[in-house]
Design goal:
4-stranded mixed beta sheet; Urease, subunit C, domain 1; 8-stranded parallel beta sheet; globular; 34% helix; 2 domains; TIM Barrel; alpha/beta
Length: 417
Amino acid sequence: MSSKYEIVIRRARLRRNPEALVDIGISGGKITAIEAQLNAGSAADLDAQAGLVSESFVNPHLHLCKVYTREMLDDQLLTGYHAAGMGKAMTTIELAANVKQQYNEAWIIKNVRRAVALAAVHGNTHIRAFADVDNKARLEGVRALIRAREEFKGIVAIQVCAFAQDGLVREPGANELMHQAMEAGADVVGGIPWIEYTEADQQQHVREVFDLAQKFNKDVSMLVDDAGDPGLRSVETLAVEAIRRGWQGRTLAHHARAMALYPQPYFQKLAALLKRADMAVVSDPHTGPLHARVKELLQEGVNVCLGQDDISDAYYPFGRNNMLEVAFLASHLLWMTTRQEIETLYDMVTTQAARAMNVPGHTLVAGATANLVVLEAPNVIEAMRDHAPPRYVISHGKLVDRTMMEALARTREWAPA
């Protein structure tokens, strides 16, 4: 038997044809064949044992500079974001910012390694990672995330998002720091317009973010309307500016929790505007009591995906970069429990999330990049029920060394060569 492929996954079950088993050949980082049986051998033959094989998982929203900082915070302030109606959301953000006085790349990178190694273990091969940029955080988080991006290249692809968490208008010098972050190599420009004090300041915040995006030719991610106030309308401002700047398909809205309180006529207008802007929405329903109207957005043809959002910080005590776990939680919180809805949730942590992040070729077809998970479960419902780590993870055409990633998650230090 000739060795034509670098990897062959044998006896794989696919979502689109669950009754048949196939072999999947991988060479040069690509899926090169999907057939009932591949006669050629490979350097690594992997037996799927009739388990489901799909595109790998994608996390479009993680505050990676903050992971595992919960123990540094006062428990009293941790309840504000989760209070009924989310009326104290801004207060919580302001109090939680105090931890950034201690920011240092030296300890942030260790926490980041733990979180990203866990992502690799759970088949999460792409992350849009937020790093706060302000007078407290300075560029310490950005530097740590850029360092991690290089360390995990080929294992987990990290899009570093420079994030103006404390505002641009209300935070003197933040705009200059954001420029420095983009010059240092950040991949995405991030904002949070609703945190500003006035509507005029919110609009200026959005304009300044797009100015940076155009200058550096980068995509935009913004946390919008993340509180229980139906008067918050920054997602509309964001969509309008994306259209004006020609940034359709390059702008991502996160949270939009106030949408839960919008009157129906305004929601319908907003959904139409999101479609015109080709702007996806990332929802994280497990990290707060309000959330975007996910099912209605999907019905209107808006791309919606799910994010991990936080891992053991001021806003969420749990998390392990397991996107199946996120989808499992969302199924309960959104009451998406029919067979088709569960399939849709799976798309929201794989293909739909990849499309929102502009990850090209994230689909299980010949010619696509080989970013795949080989699950023990035979179908999506069983996979979501157990949300267990995959049997195998293929990232950028290479088999991820799970043992090494598990060790890295424990030690937070790369083992010497």
